[in-house]
Specification:
5-stranded antiparallel β-sheet; 3 domains; about 375 residues
Length: about 375
């Protein structure tokens, strides 16, 4: 909206998402029952109207049109028009009551639920999203990643009782973490967009039961807003939490890349030219570094950039600070021009895999001689 401070608007939306808005009257209006904006000064009222537009709060905008200040009414009218033009369905204006009618049954619709999981070795992360409508729920589940967008994604419609069972089972899975629904939606939509294949079948059905404000929050708010924005070079080496324990994250080198690298390692280990351990280790270190750099060329780099963002948010939600910090700075390193071979997380996993496979192949070959 013209005349609205964009930085102040973004700050307000961020505070609302983080729950730190406190007694801010604009946030109170946005989160409370829809009423006119007569209690706010003109600048605060106009900013609140624009925030309501971005959050898809049609009922609030209808009430804003009843504000005494003409400027606020006009701004609310423009916001309503913008939402309708974008395809949003606004709630009907309440009709004047004439005579008497029986009270309608009030159906309480549960809020949507989002769960994300630690990634697979290919960088794809599992997701379960549940959105409730008036007659039941839609569940979407699968694995998502920036490379192809999604794998094994499916959806189902079911009653609320069955949906509660699905959510309860998911919450018992120690590899899944419940996060605010708009956060889960943000990461899934980001994977789908970067994958370039569109959304999986049934996704639009699920979104039909998700409030417009929640969808707008997923689009506008950055789940990593409160985390570091600049890389600490020292932090990318402090990654024990990423490599070990129940919450470890595994990077898998695909077979096309690992095959030639394994043969090179075997040659280095059995070479009669490199007779001392130091030269052998140096050759293997060069193979590992080169393999890591090649592995993170192209789509794989984007996949793991998104994956580390997901892990950083899950770790923050679960209070695992070492894992959060390691994932966050590994993700920031991926956003730079740093080669894959310079990022310890990938180099260590590739070294482990090449060592294990090389020893196995050498043992098999020795047994056949």
């Amino acid at each position: 909206m013209k005349g609205v401070d964009s930085e102040a608007l973004q700050a307000l939306l961020t505070q609302i998402e983080a729950g730190t808005a406190g007694d801010d009257p604009r946030a109170a209006w946005l989160s409370g029952e829809p009423v006119p904006l007569d209690e706010l000064d003109i600048d605060a009222a106009l900013l609140a109207v624009e925030a309501a537009r971005l959050m898809g709060l049609g009922a609030h905008l209808r009430q804003a049109k009843k504000t005494s200040d003409k400027r606020v009414r006009k701004a609310a009218g423009r916001a309503i028009h913008a939402l309708k033009s974008a395809g949003h369905q606004l709630p009907d204006a309440p009709a004047e009551s004439v005579g008497w009618t029986l009270d309608r049954e009030i159906i309480e619709i549960p809020p949507p639920v989002g769960l994300l999981g630690l990634p697979q070795s290919d960088g794809y992360f599992p997701f379960i999203l549940v959105a409730h409508g008036g007659s039941g729920a839609c569940v979407c589940a699968g694995v998502a990643g920036a490379g192809q967008g999604y794998q094994d994604a499916d959806h189902g419609h079911m009653g609320r009782g069955r949906a509660r069972e699905v959510v309860a089972d998911a919450r018992r899975d120690h590899n899944l973490f419940e996060v605010p629904f708009h956060v889960a939606l943000h990461f899934c939509e980001r994977a789908f967009a970067e994958g370039g294949r569109g959304r999986p079948h049934g996704w639009s059905h699920m979104l039909e039961s998700v409030p417009a404000a929640t969808q707008n929050s997923a689009r506008l708010l950055d789940p990593l807003q409160r985390q570091e924005q600049e890389l600490d070079p020292g932090a990318i080496s402090e990654i024990d939490a990423l490599l070990e324990g129940e919450s470890r994250v595994v990077f898998g080198l695909d077979e096309k890349a690992s095959g030639p690298a394994v043969e090179e390692c075997i040659q280095a280990l059995t070479s009669e030219i490199s007779v001392d351990d130091v030269s052998r280790r140096r050759r293997i270190a060069d193979i590992v570094k080169r393999s890591a750099t090649q592995a993170l060329d192209g789509a794989t780099r984007g996949t793991w950039t998104l994956t580390m963002d997901v892990v950083a948010v899950l770790a923050e939600a679960s209070g695992n600070e070492p894992l959060r910090r390691a994932a966050r700075h590994t993700g920031l390193a991926l956003r730079t021009e740093m080669e894959g071979g310079e990022i310890p997380f990938f180099r260590i996993w590739i070294e482990r895999q090449l060592a294990a496979v090389s020893e196995m192949v050498m043992s098999v070959r020795a047994g056949k001689q």
